[in-house]
Amino acid sequence: MIYKNGKAELGFYNIAYNPLTENGVKTGMLQSAIDVTELVMARIKVEDLSREQQTANEELAAINEELHTSNDELTVIQGKLQDMIVELAENEQQLEQIINILPAAVVIIRGNDLVAESINNTNLAYWDKTREEVIGKPLLEILPELASQPFPGQLRQVMRTGEVIDVRDSPVLFTNADGSKRETFVDYTYQPLTDRNGLRTGVLVMSYENTQRVLSRKLLEEYSEQMQAMNEELTASNEELIAAQHTIEESRTALRLAIDAAELGTWYVHSISRQLISNARLKELFGYYPEEDFTLEQALAQITDEYRESVNAAIEAAIHHGGDYDITYPVTGFHDQRQRWVRAIGNLQPDPSGTFAAFTGLVMDITEQKTDELRKNSFIGMVSHELKTPLTSLNGYLQVLQIKARNSGDTFVSGALDQCVKQVKRMTNMINGFLNVSRLESGKIHIDKQQFDMADLIRDMTEETKTLYATHQLIFHPVEPTMVNADREKIGQVIDNLVSNAVKYSKSGSRVQVACVQMEGSARVSVRDEGMGIDKNDIPRLFERYYRVNNDNKISGFGIGLYLSAEIIERHNGKIWTESEPGEGSTFYFTLPLAN
């Protein structure tokens, strides 16, 4: 500490002491001092700054450590969020897949205005609407004709009370685009949908069109009535994560609801390893216990011998070439040895990772449906077979009576007997049709292919057909020799079906023309009428079993003639189709390959 100008100041000095000598004798000491205050103060300041920097570095390191930890936590959260998003997408994809391939018609209705939120392809086809005409629109805007029917009120009742509504064989009346009416019959279930708070937000509608079943029942009743009538006639003549979790949960709930409601087995086959992942219901359908291992090889082993190879080939084709997989086959349960009929539906879906594809789908139990179908076919076949014997005897007696009536010159009795023979012939043809349908659907129809000339067949049919359908002008155009390899009796039945159909749908006295020509290696037979014609919307379904065109003319029939004709021609590797304009008549064609 030194004093400058009367003030004490802190200073730093470098001091040196050196001796003074004279003639070798130390006489004194020399003191020197160098002011280093600024240098020392600078060093002190540097040291202070170093300490501050070290402290700052330590604080910065702590901050970096906290930031690194936060980044790790954020990465984990982002990973979970991404997993949730992927799972949500997969669940939504699987739900959409399940809804779209379900045989049931499915639609999800939201709000008091009954707005359609989601709909599958089966329902779109049933409503005859496009997806753009349905999604986001109120039900009564989509189908205003339902306003006078019970469905809107029932939907609001489910929204209000939460009670499930389950109805069977309910009639539904639709209005077609041309203004005509279309009546169908459905089984349907209205199931309330709730959010995570238990509030009702919508209704899951699942319906099965059973028009064919109801019409088949009515058809059998009509058939019985007609049989009775004919017998009488014959006898008398984070927020995003939380939101994602909630959405996933709702998706899972809807997915489980759809699968449980339909009692479906679900499966997943890895396209590379062929690893099979299935639910308990699928194991049950194949006769395994839920806790048991279940592989693809085990599943194939339970398929009956005659179907196993074709099912395996269909699976491999779907995995290698993509496309939809839809096949029906019987299985024998592994433990219970019970035989079940199942229908498997699926397709190839790319994995989100892009490294492989997953072959996924559903299996449903159709044993009851298949059993009912077999019973129905057996019943129709039995009844048809039993009716043929008395008709054959009756036809023989009528022919004997015809001969006696002609010999006696009794024209009235002879004419009456001619009409009886015609009615017996009609009934015989109808019974043969039912018998052939029964054999066809049970796989027992026999095609006896032999080489014959179509010219001979049409010539043989000419007189008999003209006699049977004397109310019309039947014109059989000349046919050049045309050799085919086919079942002569069944091809004759096809021609008779087409002629009968032409007569039935055209006015009495009009022309029906039959022709056969050779074209591009095939024999082409055509039957043309001058009748009412066919609407273009009906043409694609003409050859379906029991299909009847809706019109104002009450024309009897069962809708099996064209179906049976199409099946016979298909089994001959031929083609059958029609060309028609409403009001201008129709022409039915079929082709058969020419014999080599």
Q: What is the C-level CATH assignment of the largest domain?
A: Alpha Beta
List how many beta strands DSSP finds. Answer: 21
**Structure classification:** alpha+beta
CATH architecture of the largest domain: 2-Layer Sandwich
Q: Which descriptor suits the 3D outline?
A: elongated
Helix content: 40-55%
Segments where pLDDT lies below 50 for 5+ residues?
Answer: none
Describe the SSE topology.
Layout: E1 2-4, E2 7-9, E3 13-22, E4 25-35, H1 37-101, E5 105-110, E6 115-119, H2 121-127, H3 139-142, H4 151-161, E7 165-175, E8 181-194, E9 200-209, H5 211-236, H6 239-262, E10 265-270, E11 276-278, H7 280-285, H8 296-301, H9 305-321, E12 324-332, E13 339-350, E14 357-365, H10 367-408, H11 411-441, E15 450-453, H12 454-468, E16 473-476, E17 483-486, H13 488-504, E18 511-519, E19 522-529, H14 561-570, E20 575-580, E21 586-593
Parallel strand pairs: 16-18
Antiparallel strand pairs: 1-2, 3-4, 5-6, 5-9, 7-8, 8-9, 10-11, 10-14, 12-13, 13-14, 15-17, 18-19, 19-21, 20-21
Domain PAS: 251-322
Pfam families: HATPase_c, HisKA, PAS_3, PAS_4
Subcellular location: Membrane
Describe the protein's architecture and organization.
- One of its GO terms (cellular component) is membrane.
- It is a multi-pass membrane protein.
- This protein has helices at residues 37-101, 121-127, 139-142, 151-161, 211-236, 239-262, 280-285, 296-301, 305-321, 367-408, 411-441, 454-468, 488-504, 561-570; strands at residues 2-4, 7-9, 13-22, 25-35, 105-110, 115-119, 165-175, 181-194, 200-209, 265-270, 276-278, 324-332, 339-350, 357-365, 450-453, 473-476, 483-486, 511-519, 522-529, 575-580, 586-593.
- It has 596 residues and is an alpha+beta fold.
- The chain has five domains: 1-100 and 238-262, no CATH class; 102-209, Beta-Lactamase, CATH 3.30.450; 263-365, 2-Layer Sandwich (Beta-Lactamase); 366-445, Signal transduction histidine kinase, dimerisation/phosphotransfer (DHp) domain (Helix Hairpins, Orthogonal Bundle), CATH 1.10.287.130; 448-596, Histidine kinase-like ATPase, C-terminal domain (Heat Shock Protein 90, 2-Layer Sandwich).
- The strands form six sheets. A five-stranded antiparallel sheet has the order 6-5-9-8-7. Strands 11-10-14-13-12 form a five-stranded antiparallel sheet, sandwiched between helices. Strands 16-18-19-21-20 form a five-stranded mixed sheet, covered by helices on one side.
- It starts with a strand and ends with a strand.
- The mean pLDDT is 82.
